[in-house]
Design goal:
With about 190 residues, the protein is mostly beta strands. The protein has one helix at about 1-20, and strands spanning about 20, 30, 40-50, 60-65, 80-90, 95-105, 115-125, 130-140, 145-155, 160-170, 180-189. The strands form two sheets. An eight-stranded antiparallel beta barrel has the order 3-5-6-7-8-9-10-11. A two-stranded antiparallel sheet has the order 1-2. This is Dirigent protein.
Length: about 190
């Protein structure tokens, strides 16, 4: 009985020192160790190829909102596309698939082809299977290299931060199909 009481008091004191509520009642300070954040952060580099296939019967990117006709620009302002694109080890679509990029992009400039990219890179291989890296940012299509922020992740990539460098590897102006090389630098626990 005394052992149970001591154990209960220990657990209660641990809980009170781990989580401290503020006066609002809905915000608390949490000891990072309780979330496994006491480990040293790791910086990882991933290189994958993102295949945006708009054409054909097996398209992986589908426009759900067309460009706004009133603006009649070459930038396709207002267009929104949903994606489930393959992430591969090499630039060929036939190379090994290591994940999918699930997300959306919207054309957000009236004067140039600029996209707001919102993507979860969902990995399907090795220790990263089921883990995601979330990338959200501005992509000016005709710049040679673009940088987009990594804003988070899940699984192995909980509390992830970093950035992704995107470089167009291939673009077919007739079909709109594209392959982009992504070099992702991500801090994670």
């Amino acid at each position: 009985m005394a052992t149970q009481l001591l154990l209960t008091l220990f657990l209660l004191s641990f809980t009170l020192t781990t989580i401290k509520a503020d006066d609002t009642g809905f915000v608390a300070t949490v000891d990072p160790k309780t979330l496994g954040l006491h480990k040293k952060q790791t910086l990882s580099h991933f290189r994958v190829y993102w295949h945006d296939i708009i054409s054909g019967s097996n398209a992986t990117a589908v426009q759900i909102i067309p460009a706004i006709p009133k603006y009649n620009t070459t930038s396709s302002f207002g267009s929104v596309t949903v994606t489930d694109n393959a992430l591969t080890l090499g630039p060929e679509l036939s190379s090994k698939v290591v994940g999918r990029s699930e997300g959306i992009y919207a054309l957000t400039s009236q004067s140039q082809v600029t996209l707001l990219m919102v993507m979860n890179f969902v990995f399907t291989e090795g220790k990263y299977n089921g883990s995601t890296i979330t990338i959200v940012g501005r992509n000016v299509a005709f710049e040679s290299a673009k940088e987009l922020p990594v804003i988070g992740g899940s699984g192995v990539f909980k509390f992830a931060t970093g950035y992704a460098k995107a470089k167009t590897y291939f673009f077919d102006p007739k079909t709109g199909d594209a392959t982009t090389e992504y070099n992702i630098y991500v801090f994670h626990y």
